[in-house]
Amino acid sequence: ELLEAALAVFQPKGLAGVRALVTAGPTFEAIDTVRGITNLSSGKMGFAIARALREAGAQVTLVAGPVGLPTPYGVTRHDVVSAEQMFAAVKERVSGADLFISVAAVADFRPAHRSDHKLKRASGGLTLELTPNPDILGYVARLPRPPLCVAFAAESEHLEEHARAKREAKGVPLLVANLVQEAIGGDENQVVLFDERGRHPLPRGSKLEVARAIVRHIAAAWPDWSRR
Amino acid sequence: ELLEAALAVFQPKGLAGVRALVTAGPTFEAIDTVRGITNLSSGKMGFAIARALREAGAQVTLVAGPVGLPTPYGVTRHDVVSAEQMFAAVKERVSGADLFISVAAVADFRPAHRSDHKLKRASGGLTLELTPNPDILGYVARLPRPPLCVAFAAESEHLEEHARAKREAKGVPLLVANLVQEAIGGDENQVVLFDERGRHPLPRGSKLEVARAIVRHIAAAWPDWSRR
């Protein structure tokens, strides 16, 4: 932690004073008292982004799904389990934010009915009714005075096409796209940034290196973006 | 690890030479390339059982679902993700086993169809068809010459009634029952053992203390059980 703090001193301070809100990790959508739907997100990329933002001088609040990762130095963390809890935590904290980075792999759906006791094994099949979860990024991007929004997209195929479509559909200035195979769970990542100026592939590296490169990109564009 | 090895020397060796197969952790049942159904099992109890068995002199093979826990000293570990993979791993290793302890919280159901690409967000609801997973413990207990089987049961209510019913339905000599609220995810546990002689509550303690008490119970009964 001391080393982390010392190293942070040497990172460029391009986002000094910027208030950033970051989501990270998976969400867990309960089926009953023990079972649930989740995904393979480790939270590492989101935590790396929170750390890189803090290194760049930002005041960082991290809303984290259920992961066991240590909180980056100097970051304020709020733990949640489900997408609805993450939505509530974001709504509560977004009003003061200048920058919102949605890294969490929020479950799109949750079971329509949650059982308060553990469901017993049955011999036949089972049908699970799922209902859509709130679109947290969509909500933030459509606020009357939204923070600058950055979306992450994990795609398993047609990366560029899906990434461009998602950037326009969500109405976000910057979209960070990665291939699921590259990113989920591992310690390295390779991403392509999409913004109004086009496509910016970043070199492959550790998630912290990639996070710092993304934050440098944001810091470079910040004077332009924040002037609007 | 050195300390763990040194402490193990002082544990009673009631299961010297016994070949034990243990399952631990949750299973993860893929819906698509990133999403899946799982449960809140941390794997801690199963790993503690594996460690306690090894301390008692057993040769231990541990089949573990997706958890990040370190392998206990001297234990042979095989990692799996889904219930079907766990079933295959157990089938492959059970023939030489004298003792089978099923601690894993195996998902009862898996999605009937797995998508090879990440499903896209849709605005409407979704129905997930689930199909039953193999009953791993049931298979082992019904082998022509089964190892001695120990089942774990996590119940959210009516602990005794459900535990007795499960012990009889599975046809296992020993069932370890705990309340979900006590056990899942935490570092402590409190269990009640059910065997042919009745009900044996164990004192509350760390998962390792509880695991050692369970192993002492098995070791005490072992001469009788293995004679049959």
Main sheet record of chain A = 8 strands, mixed
Q: Indicate the mean pLDDT of chain A.
A: 88
Strand order, sheet with most strands of chain A? 5-4-1-6-9-10-12-13
- The share of residues in helices of chain A is 25-40%
- According to DSSP, the number of beta strands of chain A is 14
Our estimate of the beta-strand percent of chain A is: 25-35%
| Topology order of chain A in helix (H) and strand (E) letters | HEEEHEEHEEEHEHEHEEEEH
Determine the N-to-C terminus distance of chain A. 37 Å
Biggest interface pair, residues each? Answer: A-B, 40 and 40 residues
Which oligomeric form is depicted? Answer: homodimer
**Structure annotation, total helices of chain A:** 7
Classification by helices and strands of chain A? alpha/beta
Poorly predicted regions of chain A: none
Shape of chain A: globular
Based on CA atoms alone, the radius of gyration of chain A comes out at: 18 Å
